[in-house]
Predict the structure.
Amino acid sequence: MRAEKGGIIRSEGQTGSEGFEDRPEVRDFPEQIGAKDENGKDENEKRVKQARLYAMKQLQSRDRTEKDLRIKLLGAGYGEELTDDAISYVKDFGYLDDVRFAFNYIRFSSQRMSRLTLSHKLSEKGVSGEDIEKAFCQAYEEGFIDDLTEEETLERLIRKKYPSGGELSENERNKLFASMYRKGFAVSKVEKVLRRILT
């Protein structure tokens, strides 16, 4: 029996804005994985069901990466084999998808982070380079980010820091470059935006 893919669960950090990619709502399916063992099934099959149910419960409140879910399963005492089975199970229902997670993360965070920083943070969460690139391509194709996004983000950050504009002292410029560099913005882009708005 296949589960119905009815409602909506949003990814980590989402606020309900338009443009986010939704995933099926994760529900309990007792007929599939939560039913009582009335037929004398062996202990291994019971553990498989328990691991699958645990994985689904971890995905009920928010979207996760495969790495995150794997850590949760292993930490709960499920071994590698049971963890692999549970992850494969939730993937089959579309409940676990690293490309979707990365796409939603990029969509939500692109207005305050550079592409470099976004890639780094997604990599830290366990998303592969290939999946990150797919997510960026999807974000470009759907018009959520473009080549101007980083410059617009930079301009907003700089104007917030120096709302009055005008020339900066050498010390202020150095601090600004250091701050933007830590956020993952290229020096050349910072210089370009500075020339446009602070002269």
